[in-house]
Amino acid sequence: xxxxxxxxxxxxxxxxxxxxxxxxxxxxxxxxxxxxxxxxxxxxxxxxxxxxxxxxxxxxxxxxxxxxxxxxxxxxxxxxxxxxxxxxxxxxxxxxxxxxxxxxxxxxxxxxxxxxxxxxxxxxxxxxxxxxxxxxxxxxxxxxxxxxxxxxxxxxxxxxxxxxxxxxxxxxxxxxxxxxxxxxxxxxxxxxxxxxxxxxxxxxxxxxxxxxxxxxxxxxxxxxxxxxxxxxxxxxxxxxxxxxxxxxxxxxxxxxxxxxxxxxxxxxxxxxxxxxxxxxxxxxxxxxxxxxxxxxxxxxxxxxxxxxxxxxxxxxxxxxxxxxxxxxxxxxxxxxxxxxxxxxxxxxxxxxxxxxxxxxxxxxxxxxxxxxxxxxxxxxxxxxxxxxxxxxxxxxxxxxxxxxxxxxxxxxxxxxxxxxxxxxxxxx
Length: 428
Hints:
Blueprint: H1 2-33, H2 36-57, H3 60-69, H4 75-107, H5 114-139, H6 144-168, H7 173-196, H8 214-251, H9 256-274, H10 278-297, H11 301-328, H12 330-338, H13 344-369, H14 373-395, H15 402-427
Helix pairs in contact: 1-6, 1-10, 2-4, 2-5, 2-8, 2-9, 3-4, 3-5, 3-8, 3-10, 4-5, 4-8, 5-7, 6-7, 8-9, 8-14, 9-13, 10-11, 10-13, 11-13, 13-14, 13-15, 14-15
């Protein structure tokens, strides 16, 4: 089991490293072609995109990975029983997006985002199918398909941006945002096609298999509801983020162009740069869930504690070196990657707090794995409320975009400490 976890983690780390390099090149292409203001407009709709995607999946990927990984489970029955529920939810979400697109656009204070909001509806079914297959394969212990799919996805996105972005930027901002979002349709289709090759070929599927079974639905909802609530709470916080920033900062006298530009610098340059080491912590967290879930179901608490301890220490050690480099010379990295030094002050403030972010991933994943998702939900709820209130109040003090920096830092610190305390109490 230990060798399997190590092998899984190594595969995910190597795959994550390759994917991260592609993502870096993609980010360079974006920042070289888009102005900071246009990038800021795109990033202002991104939280809405993630919120709607997370709602449409309703925690099924997490439930899938956990339940499929457990011994003595009828994997086919669980998957097929819950497919109709996911399909119905996707249809409802798509219809609601079409209905409320004008309202969302108005809240985001930019009419150029209307087509972008509509585009999200077209992406949702593809992201749901892709996540479903990915989670099933990972739950069965197949790590390689996810890595291959991620690399192919990155290559396709890179090629699309490289060849078509120079053409699209000649159009209006509205078309640029629409293009960036609809690119996900092609990317997710490539994911689905790639992972289909790794699914079992000898499965006998009948019509009655798609009829929801009460026990399977119950097992799904027990994991899916708290996971979804957690995700939605966090996503709502980020959904409100650009709305609060745009409306409050305009109220105290800042121009829309200034807000979009600074928001673009923080969300388009600064945070992606600081998150570069996350391929490692992300790999650990992904490998951790099915492994700890299996050990916990066997009541082997000693193994659970050892794996959690190793994952936290490893994440901290790996993230520490780049964090020091970002603090010491942020201008070098910004200039090398983005051809700008804008955002260096933000990086120096945020970097130390993101050390806690890197160790929070394996901690929160461990809570999910031992069936304590509700504890993480409570943490996220209180953290989101604190962050949102802070963001609003500090925005009234006329200190530019620093309210975003401060509230994000406090949010990370609070979430990590509270989750760690709850994990410790549950395993003591």
